[in-house]
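FORM 7B: Structural annotation worksheet

SECTION A. Query
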Amino acid sequence: MHAICGWMGQIADAAASDRILDQMLERCRGGAPDAKGAGLIRDLSGHAATLAGAGQVYADGEVVVCLTEPVMLSTGSAPAVPADAEAVARRYHAQGDALLGHCHGSFGLVVMDLRRRKILMAVDRAGIRPLYFRRSGAAVVFASRLSALRELPDFQANLSDQALFDYLYCHVVPSPGTIYQGVEKLLPAQAIDLGPLGRHAFFYWQMPYRDDNPAALTDLKREFRGLLPLVVEQAAAAPGPDATAVGCFLSGGTDSSTVAGTLRQLRGAPVRTYSMGFAAAGFNERDDARLAARHFATDAREYQVQPQDLLEAIPLVAAYCDEPFANASIVPAYLCARYARADGMERLLGGDGGDEIFGGNARYATQQVFEIYGNLPGWLRRGLVDPLAAIPGLRAVPGLRKFKHYVEQARIPLPDRLETYNFLHRTPLGEIFDPGFLARVDPDAPLASQRACYERTASRAIVNRMMHLDLKITLADNDLRKVSQACELAGIDVRYPLLDERLMTFAAGVPPQIQIKNNQLRWFFKEALADFLPPAILTKKKHGFGVPIGLWLAEYPPLKALTVDSLGTLRERGIVNPAYIDWLRARHAGEQAGYYGVMLWVLVMLEHWLRAHGHAS
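SECTION B. Predicted structure
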C-alpha cells in the first residue's frame, strides 16, 4: 500500500524496463488499490528508473526522488509539515544527505543523485516502512517489498543458509539480512549511500536517552499528556481517510487502550475498536478489551478466533510474507484487520511500541534483578556468593536450587542473557541441524548482531539499553512486520501513534529509574495515566493478541494433520535433523504442548513459506 521500486543504472532496454517496473510495483502493492495514477520516471540514458504512487516520485534532471508516502519535513524550530517528492528533492539540493535529519514520520526514501552517480536510501526512525535492495550488475535495485526483486531478469532466488539459521533462532529473519543471498534490508533509522566512492552505511538518528534528566515528575506527566492527543490525531488524520473510516486495534492492554481512548476523546463520539477472543484459558483478552471499550464508550467489534481460522490463514500468510515469519499472532492480527476492512474501515491505529519506549516488557524487571549480582563488590562475589553457588549437590536442595540458578544466569552478560531460554541454546546445535547445513553458517551471528545494537545505545542505563535492543529485535524485526503485513494482506492501512518521533524522543528523556520503579513495569506511563485508564487495565498482566498455537496443534485434528505433512517434507530439506523433529513432536505430545508447540509452529511456517515461494524440497 506504500509501494515504491526501481533502480539506478541499466538492467534492460527501455521496453523491458517499463514491463519490469510494472511487474515490480504490482508485487509491491500486493493487490492494494492505490497504484492507480502511479508515476514512472525513466532516464533514457539508463541512469535511473523508478515507479511509485502519484506525488511520490519526482525528477528534475539532476536527482530522482522516490517516497513510500509524503514525509514530514522540518525547517529550523518550525513544526514539520507534509512534503512530497519534489519538496524532498529541493531540500536534498540544499543539504545533501543531511536532509535525513529533517525527515520525520513513517517512510522509505530513495534519492538518485545523477550528478554524483550515487544512490541514497533510508527508512524511518522506527523501521515502520521496509526497504530492500541489491546490486544487479552495475545497477542498484530497491523495492518496498522483497518479492518485487524477484521480477528482475538476473534474480536468482538462492536461499541464504545464514538467514534460515537466524530465522530458527529469532523466529523471523532479522535485519539487515534477508532470506535471499545478495539482498539486504535497512535497519531502523539507517541510511546507505552507494556510489563511485563505495558503500557508506550510517544511522542518521538514534534514541536521545537522557539518563540524568532533572525534570520534575509533574512536568514530565504534563508533557506526556499533552503529546498523546497530538500523535494520535496525526496518525489518524494525515495523510488519510475520512475520520469515520479510522478505527483502533483494542486488546485491552495499556497501549491499545490509551490510543483508543485518546482518539475517542478527540472525536467526541464513539470510535470503532476491534478485538479478538480465543476459547482457551490464559489467552482470551476479550474481557479486558470489553472493559476498555465500556470505559471509553467505543463502538466495539469482536471476533472469536477458532482453530479453523488458523488453518485457513496459514497458506495466505505464508504466501504474502516476504520472508519466513513465525509470530503466530499475525493470524489474529490479520483476522482483526480483515474484519475491520469489511466493516468499512480504511485505517487502524495500533498501540505497538509502548513497551519498547516506556519499559513494558517483563524481562526488563527480571534482568535488573540479575544485574544485582554484577553490582556486588568483587570480594563479596569471589569470597562468598560464587563459592556458595559452587557447592556440589546444591541443585538437590529446594531452598538453594533457585540461588544456584540465579548465579549461573547472572554470570552471563547482557544481552546474551536474554537468549538463554532460546530453543537453540537449550539443545546442542549438532542435535538440531544437519551437519552440512551447520558447517555453512555462523551460529554466533544472531547474538553478534544483538550485541552490536545493545552496545551502540546512547545510555548507560540497563533498561534503556534493553529497550534500544528491543526497538530493533522485538519491534522493527517482529511486531511491526507482523501488524503491517497482516494489514496489507487485509487491504487496510495501519499507523502507530506511539512511535511518533515526538513521543519517542520524549520517552527517551524519562529517567530510567522511573520507567521501572520498585520492579514495577511502566511505572511512569501508568502513573501519568492513572486518571485516564481503568484501574483494572493498569494492573493487568500483558498478553496481547497471543494464540494458543501449541494447544491447537496438539488438539485440533486438521492442524495435527497439517503439522505431520509439513514436517514430513521439511525433514527432507537438509536443514533440521529428522531426529530433532521427532524429539520435538514427542515432547509436544506430552504435558508441555504449549511450550514445544512454539518451535513446531516455527518449523511448520518455514515449510509453508518455502512451498508458497517456489522452493521445492
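SECTION C. Observations
The two ends are 32 Å apart (CA to CA). The mean pLDDT is 91.

SECTION D. Sign-off
Analyst initials: ____
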